[in-house]
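Justification of computing resources. Each target in the renewal requires a structure prediction run like the one illustrated here; the chain below, 70 residues long, is used simply to show the kind of job we budget for.
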Amino acid sequence: MDQLINMISERTGISEDQARQATEMVIGFLKDRLPAPIASQLDNVMSGQAAGNPTDQSKKGLGGLGDLFG
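Resulting structure tokens:
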């Protein structure tokens, strides 16, 4: 998450505190609107706990729907 915050801060010119607030707001928005299994995957990704192949994880998070796309 720190990498994302730093990137937002650098690219937009806003402070790291503002970038952190914006990031937390967007993540909260997404978690409120995504299905629970995907929202929990978002928590794992943002905490750096995601492991393995990101493509495989996204397919699992989409309940197998990812297989339809490749």
